[in-house]
Design brief:
This protein has ten helices and no strands. It has 218 residues and is mainly α. It has one domain. The protein is globular. 16% of the residues are buried.
């Protein structure tokens, strides 16, 4: 059994490199800012900051914030890539890790630009910026959990197996749990502008997922 595991792991070249990439980024974040590392790894605690400090926080972005963003992209793309392989898309010519990572980065950029446009159009730029920063914090925490689950899934169970579905379910539950904590401070604002909130969810959360599912025909 151990020989079979060793033979399989010999082909996990990109996963091994990615694992060391995770460790390197986390080590750099901890070295540059231990508080950022603590906020990233202690996912069950909810970090918050007042709305008026959002612009200041954006202007004071540091290299560790960029590293955390890169970490999020690497983790999410790796999990998506492994999940698509499990679903049988491994033979597709377009399916590769850099493509998924590029698609994720493009989505984040387009979404940020559209949200800034909405904020400017409704004269609520500061609120939109505050929402973006809070969302980035809770998604960074989720990425750390997902990276742990990804490493366990790859090196303990291998690339193939139903454990990827289990990991997806765990991640989805944690995502929903964190999402309700994310929107809780904006509950009164949501009640006042419920229609806009529904449109926001449909546009930026549901529509991209629906397009992916329809294209892949999962």
């Amino acid at each position: 059994m151990y020989e079979a595991i060793i033979r399989e792991n010999q082909h996990l070249t990109w996963e091994v490199g990615l694992f060391f990439g995770f460790v390197l980024i986390l080590a750099l974040v901890k070295h540059l800012n231990p508080d950022s590392f603590y906020r990233l790894t202690v996912f069950w605690k909810n970090d918050s900051f007042v709305t008026k400090s959002s612009r200041t926080k954006l202007r004071s972005l540091k290299i560790e914030d960029v590293l955390v963003f890169v970490y999020r992209g690497l983790v999410f793309s790796a999990f998506t890539y492994s999940l698509l392989i499990y679903w049988g898309y491994g033979g597709q010519t377009w399916l590769n890790y850099p493509t998924i990572l590029g698609a994720w980065a493009s989505y984040c950029l387009i979404r940020a630009l559209l949200e800034w446009g909405v904020g400017l159009g409704f004269d609520s730029e500061l609120w939109m910026l505050h929402i973006q920063l809070r969302r980035s914090v809770f998604k960074a925490k989720l990425s750390f959990v997902l990276s742990v689950l990804f490493v366990i899934g790859v090196f303990a169970f291998g690339q193939s197996g139903s454990h990827w579905i289990v990991i997806m379910i765990i991640y989805s539950i944690l995502f929903l749990w964190n999402y309700q904590r994310f929107v809780k401070p904006f509950f009164r604002l949501i009640q006042t502008h419920l229609v806009y909130f529904i449109l926001y969810i449909c546009t930026f959360e549901i529509a991209p997922l629906w397009l992916i599912v329809k294209y892949l025909k999962v």
